[in-house]
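Exercise 3.2. Students should predict the tertiary structure of the chain below and write it as structure tokens, then compare their answer with the key that follows.

Predict this chain's 3D structure.
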Amino acid sequence: MKSRKRKTGIGKRIGVKYCGGCNPTYDRSQVVRQLKACFLNRFYFPLRSQKNLDGLVFINGCPSSCALEEGGPKGPVSFSISGENELPLLIRWLTTLEEKENN
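Answer key:
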């Protein structure tokens, strides 16, 4: 399988879809900043509206998970979180995606 590398050298494109933010229980943007820091130069995190995504992350502010309901898991593989306590699970999921590409 051919790798889709960007000209800047950044690997997989993981789209980010935020919920509406009506009742967030944590700083959703902070979670995305932590992801970017953790996967620096290994993943690119554009908004979901961009094309040719390798994966999709739904960032929900509460357990209602309305981002998942609005966006639906159409197209690329996806992962949904509804609290910052789920960040380690998301990191593990992204690591698994990366390992699959390298094998």
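Discussion points: Residues 1-8 have pLDDT under 50 and may be disordered. The CA atoms of residues 73 and 81 lie 13 Å apart.
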